[in-house]
Amino acid sequence: MNKKNLVVIQLSGGNDYLNTIVPYESGLYYDYRPNMGLKDDSIIPIDEKIAFNANMQAFKENFDNDKLAIMMGIGYPEPNRSHFRSMDIWHTAEPFESSSVGWLGKTVQNIDPENKNPITAVNFGKGLPRALACPGVSVASVGALESYGLFTGVSGSKNRDVLLDTVDRIYQPMNLDGIPSLRLLETGRGALDGADLLSDAPKVYNSNVEYPEDNPIAQSLKGIAQVASAKLGSRIFYAQHGSFDTHTDELKNHSLLWNQLSVAIDCFQKDLIQQKLDDETVIWIFSEFGRRIADNGTGTDHGSGGVAFLLGNSVKGGLYGEYPNLDPSAQLEGDIHYNTDFRQLYSTILEDILDIDSENILNEKFSKLSLIK
User: Fold this and answer.
1) Does residue 85 belong to any structural domain of this protein?
2) Residue 57: inside a domain, yes or no?
3) Which of 304, 293, 301 is nearest to 339 (CA)?
4) Labelling 151: which of 10, 141, 189, 252 has CA 20 to 30 A away?
């Protein structure tokens, strides 16, 4: 049986839970959102209480096919409305302490304890998400896969070869006493090795799926499909989409972001089928927090409890958690209370998808959710 791969899509900026999974039968929803409440053609009903945003057609199709799990009201204790602190909590799985070590970085260390494969995890986008940061762990961070590598902007192949040779010799193994930073060595060596491995992925990739070129998240997912199809031993893929920080002009911007993601997911799933990777790929989608229950006129401000999605052939589709409760007595200072601890989902992902002992990563045991077939 093939090992499963995890594709993470981070909705950066704080996705609006209530305009993603819309409580369209709640009068309070429209009372609190006289300007922002979605109805009629702006929604796709799921059941008699909630609906998808109308720009989430691919999500509705997957839900109807029992391939999409919706985690309603996901969050963590003592919510923080700061983007940076809240994302750090999700990235490190440490709600009460600061940490520089990411939960997925620790996972890579468990998957590949001897650091033999520098592309066990691949990030598509600028910078390295803290979720993937861990001392001694190499992670390839890719902008455009076709141009990925070191010194690709240097004119002249001879000049580039000289630079690469110099860097290669700098990062050759030697007596550790002579190395000022072991982490620097590992990072540099990993960058070299990762560039060599990933450069071949587009060459062996064959697909007739056309990802829209003006859709950044679609292009990231295309890169993931290219690397996954090359069978290079990569198990974790990371991409970001946004910004979902919709304080103003939310109706337009939020709809555009979900339309982009829905189109991207549709292309990616068709590609996974072509590459025969659909049974071994699970997509996880999250954001650092939801938004306030009440609108601010043309947008919404930072909130707490949110929504996350798990998607794939091996996922038990359905609704998990509690329906959004907008009653004033159920609110947390104008926010939705969380009812599912995100570390329960992490525990499920670690043990049932990546086959890793979750306690090694999360430092304690959390009850799993019954999400994987």
Assistant:
1) yes
2) yes
3) 304
4) 10
Tens of pLDDT, residues 104-163: 999 999 999 998 898 999 999 877 899 999 988 888 888 767 655 433 333 444 544 444
Taking a C-beta distance cutoff of 8 angstroms, is the pair 263, 306 a contact?
Answer: no
Q: What whole-number distance in Å separates Cα of residue 72 and Cα of residue 305? A: 8
Nearest CA-CA partner of 10 in 87, 68, 82, 84: 87
Rg of the Cα trace of the chain?
Answer: 21
Whole-number Å distance between alpha carbons of 170 and 119:
21
Total domains in the chain come to 1
Can you tell me the distance from the alpha carbon of 78 to that of 370, in angstroms, rounded to the nearest whole number?
Answer: 25
- pTM, two decimals, is 0.89
Domain that holds residue 23: 5-148+199-242+257-321+338-362
- Tokens 């004033």 -> residue: 328
We report the CATH number of the domain holding residue 275 as: 3.40.720
Residues 256/139, Cβ–Cβ less than 8 Å: no
- Gap between the Cα atoms of 334 and 314, Å rounded: 36
First to last CA, the chain: 14
Helix (H), strand (E) at residue 238: strand 236-241
